[in-house]
Amino acid sequence: MSFEKLAKNASEIISEEELKQKLKLNRPLRVKAGFDPTAPDLHLGHMVLLRKLRQFQEEGHEVILIVGDFTALIGDPTGRSSVRPALTHSEIEQNAKTYQEQAFKVLIREKTKVVFNSEWLKALGTEGTIKLLAKWTLARMLERDDFSMRFKNQNPIFLHELFYPLLQGYDSVFIQSDLELGGTDQKFNLLVGRELQKEQGQEPQVCMMMPLLVGLDGQRKMSKSYGNYIRITEKPREMFGKIMSIPDTLMEEYFRLLTDIEEKEFQSLIKEHPMKAKKLLAFEITKALNSESEAQDALEYFQSVFSERKFPKDAEIINVNPGRYRLIDLLALINSGMSKNALWRLITGGGIKINGEKLIDPNLEVDVKISLEIQLGKRGFYIIKPQS
Amino acid sequence: MSFEKLAKNASEIISEEELKQKLKLNRPLRVKAGFDPTAPDLHLGHMVLLRKLRQFQEEGHEVILIVGDFTALIGDPTGRSSVRPALTHSEIEQNAKTYQEQAFKVLIREKTKVVFNSEWLKALGTEGTIKLLAKWTLARMLERDDFSMRFKNQNPIFLHELFYPLLQGYDSVFIQSDLELGGTDQKFNLLVGRELQKEQGQEPQVCMMMPLLVGLDGQRKMSKSYGNYIRITEKPREMFGKIMSIPDTLMEEYFRLLTDIEEKEFQSLIKEHPMKAKKLLAFEITKALNSESEAQDALEYFQSVFSERKFPKDAEIINVNPGRYRLIDLLALINSGMSKNALWRLITGGGIKINGEKLIDPNLEVDVKISLEIQLGKRGFYIIKPQS
After folding, report:
1. What ipTM describes this predicted complex?
2. Structure confidence by residue, pLDDT tens digits, A103-128
3. Which residues of A186-208 are buried (b: 16+ CB within 10 A; e: fewer)?
4. Which chain A residues have a beta carbon less than 8 Å from that of B163?
C-alpha cells in the first residue's frame, strides 16, 4: 500500500525492488532533495516534487532539503559570465528562507530538515577534492546528455563543471540518504550519488525520477527561463486564472501530478465537461497552495469576470486629476507594471477596453469627468476616478 | 653572450624574445624545475636538465627546485592500482634529501632553493581547487598528447588526472617563476603554468624544453622503466664502462648535452678516432659527476681490463673451502647479486670464464685447490681463493 502510493506517477525508480526493501525496514527513510539557492522562485513544476516529498512525510519518512550554498558562494568561477555572481552568506540565507516559505506551502514543516552543503564540502579541502575527482572517469562523466552534447558540438566545458555532479553526489554520502528525488533531467546526477555511496560501502540510495511538468505554452517544461510558469506564491485569483489558460491537452497530467483527484474521476470529467474539469483543476491547486476559501473566492471571481464577462466590483481605484488625457498617458498613470512601449503595443493590439469599449488609438483623447472602468489585457481591472 | 649560452641545446624556447628581455632585467631570474619525490634515482637524462640549471646559476640566476610532495602524499587515489601508494611525510623528506644529494653533483648548493608544493596546495581548499579547475576547459586539456591518445583509445582518464597539470601550473603562479625548464615531453605542463600566470596578471614564465636523452639501447629515451639508464650515483668504474657501451651513433648527442667539449672538437674526434672520442666522453661525464682522479682511475681500469683484456689486480677476493664444486654452486658463493637462474643462463650463454677459459656447462665439476680468476659477464671480476 505504502509502496503503491509512493511509487505513483514516478517516471522511473532505480530500483523498485530496493524501494520495497527499504520500506520494510520499519524506520523513517532519509529522503533527499537538493535545491539551488540562487533562484528561490518556485513554480508548479517544483510542486510536483514537493508533493511527492509530502507523500513520504505522510508515510512517516524524513525529508532532507539540501541547500546547495557551497557552489553559490563560489559563483560561476569561469569569470567569463557575469550571469552568476557569487552570493554572499546573508543573500544565501535570505534565499533559503524564501525557498522554505514557499516549500512549506506543500511540505510538513516539522518533518523537514534543511541543511547547507557548505558544511561538509568546505571540509573536503584540496586533498578530499582530488580524491573525489579520482572516483570518476572522464568517459563516464561525458555520458551525461548535456555534457556529451556540448563536447560533440565543441562548446567549451570547464573542468569544474565536470566536478559539480560529484559534489552533489557527495551530499548523498554525507547525509546517508536512502532515497533521492529529482526530475527526469536529474537522473545522471542522482545516479552519481548512488555510485559514490556504493564505493563508500553504504547502502545506495534509491533514485526516483518524477516527470517534468509541461508549462503554459503546452510545449516545453515549465521553467522560469521560458516564462511559461505559474509561481507557487501567485495570488489566488491570478493563479486560478493562469491555470484556466493552460491548453486542454495538459489537463490530465496536471490533475495527475498536482492534485489528489482520482484518475477515473478526472478522466471522465475531462471527457464530459472539460470546462468544469478545468475549474476543478484550478480550484484544487489554488486550494492546496492557499486555502479553501481563497480558492472559492478565486473561482467566483473567475466566473463573474471571465465566464459572465462582468467588470469586477473590487477593481483597484486610481485617482487622477479631472481633465483631458491622451489614452496612452492616461494608462501610464495606472501602476500596472507595464512600460509605455508595452502599453502602446497592448492598445494597438486591441487589448484595451474603457467602459467595455475597445480603443485602439494610443493618441485618442479621453475626457476624464466621471469614473471610467478600464480593462488592461485579460486580467487587469482598474477604475479611473477623477478627483480634484 | 649570456643568452647564447643559456639558449644552447634547447629544443624549444617559448619565447626566445621574452628570454632576451628577461635577461636584460638585471636581476636574478627565478628558474623553476619540478621533480617527483617518488623516484629519487637520477640518471644521465636528468643530468641534461641539471646542467642547464647549473648554467643559469653560473650566470647569477636562482634555481627553485619544487618537490611535488603534495600529490605524493595523496598517492594514486584511483584505488585501482597499488603501484603508487601514498608516501608518508618522512619518506618524502628522505626522498627529497636523496634527490638533493644527487642533484648537487651538478647544481651549486648555495644558489638552489628547495621548496615543497604541499605548502601552498593544501591552502587552496575545496574552493580554491574549484576555482583552479574553472580556469581550463576540457578541450584544451585533451590537447595534451597522452590524454588525447587515451581518450581516443577509450582508455580511462580519471578526473583528478586532468587536474594535475593545473596544480603544477599553479606552482609557477605561487613561486612567480621567470622560467621553467623541462623535457620536451613536459611542454604542455609548462605552458599551463605560463597561461595561469597570465590570468593572474603575472609576467608569464619562459618555457624552455630540453631534448630527451636517448638511453643505452639507442632507441628510447633514457628511463628507469626501460632499464636503459646510467645512474648519476653509479660508481666511477661502472659509469665509465656503461658509457663506453653506448652505440656510437649516440656519441654526438651525449657530448653535446652532457659535456662542455666544443662542437667542432668532438665532431672531428668522433670522425677520426671514435674509440678515443668515446673514452673522452666517458672521462668527461665521470669526472663531472665524481672527480678527475676517479675518472682517471676508471679510464685506466677500463683500458687494462677491456682494451688490453687483462684481469684486474684488485678484483674482489672470495674465500671458499677447498674441495670440489659444481660450477653453478661455486658461482653462487660469489655475492654478485645474481640469482641461480640468472647464473645458469649466463653460463649456458657463454658469459663465464675461469682463468680465461669459457665454461658453458653449469654442472661441470670444478676442483678448488689453488686460486681461480673468475669473470662473470663483461664487468664482474672475482678471485676464488681456497682457505681452510
Report:
1. 0.71
2. 999 999 999 999 999 889 999 999 88
3. bbbbbbbbbbbbeeeeeebbbbb
4. 130, 133, 159
